[in-house]
Amino acid sequence: MPDQSLPEARTPESAVREPAVDPGTGRGVSRRALLGTAGATGLVLGATGGAVGYAAAPARATPLTSVGTGRAVFHGKHQPGITEGLQARGHLVAFDLAPGAGRKEAAALLRRWSATAERLMAGEAAPHDDTDVARDAGPSSLTVTFGFGYGFFGRTGLEKQRPAALDPLPAFSSDHLDRTRSDGDLWVQIGADDALVAFHALRAIQKDAGSAARVRWQMNGFNRSPGATAHPMTARNLMGQLDGTRNPRPADADFDRRIFVSSATGPAWMANGSYAVVRRIRMLLDDWEALSRTAQEQVIGRRKADGAPLSGGDETTEMDLEKTDAKGEYLVPVNAHARITRPDRNGGAAMLRRPFSYHDGIDADGTPDAGLLFVCWQADPLRGFVPVQRKLDRGDALSQYIRHEASGLFAVPGGAAEGEYVGQRLLEG
Length: 429
Description:
five-stranded antiparallel beta sheet; 18% strand; signal; EC 1.11.1.-; heme
């Protein structure tokens, strides 16, 4: 779980969610009725409360009654669900194209999926056969994101368009992968600040697949709900650690270069897109929780209470890797997770993390099946995720408390313009 790539500081403009407000009345619009809880409180959610993954200055908490008014935009330069702040609920699902389905069927499917995503993100009903699951809710900052796996290109006759950056990830010593829950031809990420809204989108996407594609695997995740803390702050993972301190920010001068593909660095159809690495990382919580707080902090390299580096300061203070104690020992241990994953120790490798926690029940021996649905974004996974994970394999103190159980790599094209569907430049180019 590389620390170097977690969101910090201000919420970027691209993460501000547009409140679903009728400009004529000033009231929020739900799927079939006006919401009475929109207005100014919706703006607070968009600007701060929705950015759960970003460390921010204290601000007025967002009332939970306004959560439904947050709205992300489907059409744009980039697909939604990348630069927005963490959402309270998420679903990841991978599909394989059905036998006999090819480029034509894939194009029709992406066209259906894009139309459905656009409507649901606006707080409207699905285009057909709506289930009414989210009938009374607003958009709830719903985002739906689509990507292509390695096998998609062979099944659609587009092998020549498959980017080199999508080559399968190498094996890592920490892998214990279940191949049935890894990879896939198509990948969909769904996030929302309301569980019913997120499930409604998942169900609509599944129904839209029809006979063209079949579910390969599906995973469910969650984060802290907006408004659950006195002020917006970096989220915590199931180990109790602040998980988001050093993420690249859209305001950074080199953010686009590190996170998004340009026409000069990738195929034209991937311009303004990104690559998503998806890993199901089980946390061995019984072992972790047996450690003292001091021992946990030594493993991570940061204080558990506030995320500050063990070298001193607060959460946003630059870590001093050379600082020692009275005995000459490094304050941040040499195998601390935060030390190993620093970009300046990995050739500048950077990733934008947008994870979800998960809990899939308790095993017969009482062990919780819980951990992190790790999702990270980068312009080139061979320069982003791979070198950092290799280094973690060689000596990360955290590695004995986690287990990588599933993996996937997906090419996520740029956003669809008005009147277009996601992936149109690839499938109709």
